[in-house]
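Sample A.
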Amino acid sequence: MKQHLKALALVLALGGLAIWAFDRFFMSRVEQSPATISSVDKMETEGAPNFTSKSLDGQAFELHSMKGKVVILNFWASWCGPCVEEVPSLIKLVNEFKGDVQLIAVSGDSNEEDIHVFLKSFPELKGANIKIVYDQDRSLMKMFDVSRLPESLVLNKDLKLVKKLVGSIDWHTKDSVEYMRSLLEAK
């Protein structure tokens, strides 16, 4: 019995150490600096901060050039099970709106090769209304204060934040489609 208690104590101590190390390493990388967006409230009232990036297919784009469309900023990684789980429904939702809804899928993977391997499983992620971005230095994750994956920000046609979702969801439901339609119809 004493050996079981010692083993349990060792497992708990190592687990606590692992959690502490993860928090120190990962969370310190996504801390917000004063130069980044200050809050969700600011994005709701003033809109999302602009950024310029390059998608994996080499096309440069600017967030503010997408004004007039509903934009989903989806932060993910190929190693994240819940991220992978929501991809098919996210693709269906974006494709349903034939250009009026834009997906910017921002990968937090450790290297670009992991993303390319992942994309082989989802070739439909290469559509015209889908941009895959490798956030190598985590600057976009920092800018949008992302701390967990998957995390998605839904921006209206004025690029103001209307919904922040943390965790995996089924994007292609009747309610989701109606919600997106209402954002597109809003003046």
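Sample B.
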Amino acid sequence: MKVLMINYPHQLSQSDFPPLSLALGFFDGVHKGHQKVISTAHDIAIKNGMKSAVMTFDPHPSVVLGKERKTVQYITPLEDKIDLISSLGIDFLFVVRFTSSFSSLEPEAFVKEYLINLNVKHVVAGFDYTYGKFGKGTMDTLSTHGNGHFDVTTIPKLENENDKISSTKIRQLIHDGEMIQAKDLLGRFFVTKGTVVHGEKRGRKLGFPTANIQLENDYLIPKIGIYAVRFNVAGRWYNGVCSIGYNPTFKVPGETMLSIEVHILDFDETIYGEEVQVEWHIYMRNEEKFNGIEELILQISKDVQTAVKYFDWLDK
């Protein structure tokens, strides 16, 4: 897949590209609804002898359009989004830099400069997609603004057990620790990537050594608590127990540093500096402050057994 980063204004023209069938959207999460939009564009491309393409935007429009300084946490930061879209067999990915000047484009100008001028012959998007200044362009106006240069396919609302499959819904599920329900809408377990860094090494002293994870990107953070997770290092997956929170049993007054620590089951290697992935499976309990070390060790032992039973059931 060829990835093109596009700033406004751009100098690209129709002659730079073959005829394209384009999926249009922000696609945070690349969830089942997004996959339907992208796969439809891909299928149309194959059927009509075109190349397939996806257009997304970075950063999230709310970063630019919001009145206050805002940091957005993503289900899939850009690097992950690129990897997932590539896995769907797409030929071209356009990543449009979302800026104030770009957001001021009238709908007709957006269509001319970012669709017609890129040789797009078919556009696929969800029913609620909007474009142009103030989001005035809709799927109902897209054909009119295209003026015969491309065809349009609108993907209707997709539901899972009467819930609309949406990034907003998935964000709420992850925020609430509902990782299985989030998986049902994503089509895969939620994954975060990061690097193993040095921590306080308290886990090792307790008999449960942990890998302390520093996230690489602006990921959406799951609910504080204890999870059964799968952990990937050096291309291999392991089962584990993850604590995400503030270590209340050992917390220094005034300390506010969030930590993500994974105890990897049946593992005894030094992995500082390794790039790793945490795949979030089930929320097991809330973070607690214990009265002493022995009480904490007993609870961690119970957490490990709960995770072992879960993965035994999952792998049957």
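B remarks: The chain has two domains: 2-159, 189-314. The longest strand covers residues 275-285.
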